[in-house]
Amino acid sequence: MPRVMTPAVATALCAPYVRIALLASMQFASSTEYVWTGIGPFAWNGMTFQGVGDMGSVSTISEDSNVEAKGITIELNGISPNNLTNVLSETRILGLVQIWLAVFDPVTGVLISDPVMIYQGKMDEPATNDGAETCICDINVENALVDLNRPCYRRYTNDDQQLDLAATLTRLGLPATTLDTGMRFVPGLQERVTFWGTSPSSINNV
Asked: What is the tens place of the pLDDT at every residue in 76-95?
């Protein structure tokens, strides 16, 4: 995915000493959670990220010249066994996940605008490792390109066309009489014999 960074961020990343952190937005079933790899709350762009420190990590985010859907894994550790059920029930398949790379001034610790979005994908099923005192939960995140491998079950029919069109008209406040019903002619095209020019006296007389 293309990454847009400000000149200030690009300059800071080229410095001998770099101070960075990861910000993550994760869409669960009942709410969207914001966490970051620092300590304490951190506010940016109208979002407040809760610090998880060493209790959260992100696997390597890699890219190459090939068009390939590469996933990542977000690990949450230190989870109480009593809360493990909540974690599993709240994990939402296809929930949106966004990860930003934040760069800070190495001296003052002030955020250098603006964090760079380095990954965006959708949640997959979680995996857990239940320990004696704490649990570890790994949430797999698939790249948005994985949708290209999913089959499309849409049809060239009038009913299928109205699935999107009717909702669009409702949102725009337009009457149903403006519906595009061109697809209603598709069933009649099956096994239809069409003659161009003068009609022959029989089907075999072509």
From this structure: 888 777 777 777 788 888 89
Quick one: tokens of 88?
């599993």
pLDDT at 40: 93
Q: How much is the mean pLDDT over the chain? A: 84
Q: Classify the phi-psi angles of 139: left when phi > 0, otherwise alpha if psi is within -120 to 50, otherwise beta.
A: beta
pLDDT digits (tens, 9 = 90+) for 129-139: 877 677 888 99
Could you tell me which residues come within 8 angstroms of residue 76 by beta carbon, excluding any fewer than 6 positions away?
52, 55, 56, 87, 136, 137, 138, 139
Is residue 200 helix, strand or coil?
coil
Question: What dihedral do alpha carbons 105, 47, 140, 93 form, nearest 10°?
Answer: -170
Pair 92, 28: CB distance under 8 Å: yes
Q: Helix count (H) and strand count (E) of the chain?
A: 3, 9
- Rounded Cα distance between 199 and 189, Å, is 18
Q: How far apart are CA 38 and CA 23, in angstroms?
A: 9
Question: DSSP letters along 144-186, please?
Answer: GGGGGGSPP---SSHHHHHHHHHHHHHHHT--GGG---GGGGT
CA separation for the pair 124, 73 (Å, rounded): 10
- The C-alpha R_g of the chain, in whole angstroms, comes to 26
